[in-house]
Automatic annotation (TrEMBL):
The lineage of its organism: Bacteria, Bacillati, Actinomycetota, Actinomycetes, Pseudonocardiales. Its main location: membrane. GO terms for cellular component: membrane. The keyword Ligase does not apply. Its EC number is 7.1.1.9. This is cytochrome-c oxidase.
Length: 293
């Protein structure tokens, strides 16, 4: 009845409020969260039962003539009980630590040869995405890579393949930013210097399904931090290969390599290939066009 009134599906109930992710790493974290909540609820039920049992059967009562009776039997200095109250919590902490560490290692695990690599460059207040190993000028290999740069009028699209291992190499050109895609259930600070404070500037994941997912900067980085957004566009491997191929070809209309928007529009695969972001929109930097709310 409660589930029906709340409108929650069985899957949502089992997630205990954990949002749905789009990567295997997100699913690993969801499993840790679910079992941690179940364990916490089990401990809570036991503690509540002991509290009610103590209140009901171990309170001091009055005799028939109104005088207080003897205190209930006390349990201080009970060695077996004290050992139980020390050993059991230690075991619980060790088990929780083990599964937390196992999940963390799985989420942060990296393969030696990822299928796709993208360089993520953050700057005040936008993003650039480069694809190492791609050439937009065949005459001079390696001189110019496929790159997408955001501006105040265009949200940058980070186009990625589904079902492939993707490595993200993070770098900032000025202050500390943070690369965050809520559906990944993962964020990592983008430092001005690689490996600053012993932080690994790269991570890997795999996207399970096609779709458009908003990305944000999650580190306060200045005036326009709140609107420093981007969009992940996850495409099937064949569409992604076609996208990169178009990005490296010259657009006859402009005489330059296709931009991200032009390549997606040329692919003509519906909303999934929309040339502009569909999860967020640019911020109007014209102060005269805004009114106080």
């Amino acid at each position: 009845m409660t589930v029906g009134v709340s409108g929650c599906s069985a899957d949502e109930v089992l997630r205990f409020g954990w949002p749905e992710g789009v990567t295997p790493q997100a699913e690993k974290m969801r499993e840790l969260w679910t079992w941690s909540v179940i364990a916490a609820l089990a401990v809570g039920v036991i503690v509540w039962a002991l509290i009610f049992w103590t209140v009901a059967f171990h309170r001091r009562k009055k005799t028939a003539d109104g005088s207080p009776e003897e205190l209930p039997r006390q349990f201080q200095y009970n060695m077996p009980l004290e050992l139980f109250c020390v050993v059991v919590p230690v075991i619980m902490v060790v088990v929780l630590f083990f599964f937390t560490t196992t999940t963390e290692r799985s989420v942060l695990d990296k393969k030696d040869n990822p299928d796709t690599t993208v360089d993520v460059i953050a700057f005040q207040w936008n993003w650039e995405f480069r694809y190492p190993g791609t050439d937009t000028n065949p005459a001079v290999p390696g001189e110019q890579q496929v790159s997408t740069v955001g501006s105040s009028t265009e949200i940058p699209l980070l186009v990625l393949p589904t079902g492939k291992t993707i490595q993200y190499n993070l770098e900032s050109t000025d202050v500390i930013h943070s690369f965050w895609v809520p559906e990944f259930h993962f964020k990592r600070d983008v430092m001005p210097m690689p490996k600053k404070n012993n932080q690994d500037p790269s991570f890997q994941n795999t996207i399970d399904r096609e779709g458009s997912f908003v990305g944000r900067c999650a580190e306060l980085c200045g005036t326009y931090h709140a609107v420093m957004n981007f969009e992940v566009r996850a495409l099937s491997p064949d569409k992604f290969d076609n996208y990169l191929r178009l990005r490296q070809q010259v657009n006859p209309a402009t005489g330059k390599p296709h931009t991200a928007a032009e390549a997606l529009q040329a692919m003509n695969c519906g909303e999934l290939c929309a040339p502009q972001a569909v999860t967020t929109q640019p911020f109007n930097t014209d102060r005269t066009a805004r009114t106080a709310s």
